[in-house]
Amino acid sequence: MTKDNFEYKTALVVGAGAFGTSIASILANKFENVILKVRSEDIYKDINEDRINSVYLPGIKLDANIKAILDWSELDPSEEDSLELIVSGLPTHGIRTFFSENLVRFNSYLGKGIPLISLSKGIDPDTLELSDDLLNDFFPHYRDNITFLSGPSFAKEIMEKQITLVTIAGRSKKVLMDVATKLETPYFKALPNYDIKGVLLGGALKNVLAIAGGIVEGLGYNHNTRAAMITRGIVEMLRFGKVFNARPETFYGLSGMGDLILTTTGGLSRNKTFGLEIAKGRKPLDIINSQRTVVEGYKTTKAAFLLAEKYEIRARIFKGLYEVLYNDANVEEVLSQLMQAPIKFEID
Predict the structure, then answer these.
(1) Quick check: 21 pLDDT over 80?
(2) End position of a domain, from candidates 194, 220, 242
């Protein structure tokens, strides 16, 4: 692709994890310059010298128009002046620290009307806030500029250009259509949705159920058990959604059922893999400390438990998993307790 073929000038992606890198790769189809803000020097060198991200997406070549920066001083003034899109690939627990340190810069960007896409899928375990609450705290005047992407999308398969559909949620139709257009390729499409809370809850809570799915599979339970866990998990997700005034239909869409099916059954799911390791008897923190990839579902399990307690949400699967991960409860005993619960009608 020659310089004249690009539709847009510059996009900035903060965070070079697997998903952030895959979104950068999508944007490289349409943007002349894609800047990846990274924290680690090894990833920085990987991308700029060898055109790969060997930590998170080993063996997959990146486009030549993707450039990594460690420090803001490396951002060329012409790139900053031509910035047309920002993507935050930060984990939920990293949002507050990063934007506290870079508030002036991003206030300036958003003040120019540049849209921001958040890829975060989690709930802050300290404040019980979703990523929209966290970002709105920092940018109360630019809420219409901020959007939230979620849905069934393994980073590796995006890099392989496999057809992928996701949801993009926000407040402004104009911004949503603009962002969706900038993301669209022959293999990737984002469908707009106004239900921010529903999209974020689906993306966060499915990670918890993916861990549960990994544990169930690791213990040798097969399709019947996994199907039961998925369907009853959706019921519990809907109860959380009711507290946040989310639309029930959202949980049956891409960011709810779609993402849940993918992460509870797919072999590339970090959360499911974490659950498989738990089933082997490994301790949660030992697993987390042994790897660089983020398991959002671990902290979200605690947040979901606290939300369920605070709002008296009936969520036996979520509470049971909390006991396993945080109180070292025996998995088989928790499953037995779930099966011994009083019989209730299937539909609330």
Answers:
(1) yes
(2) 194
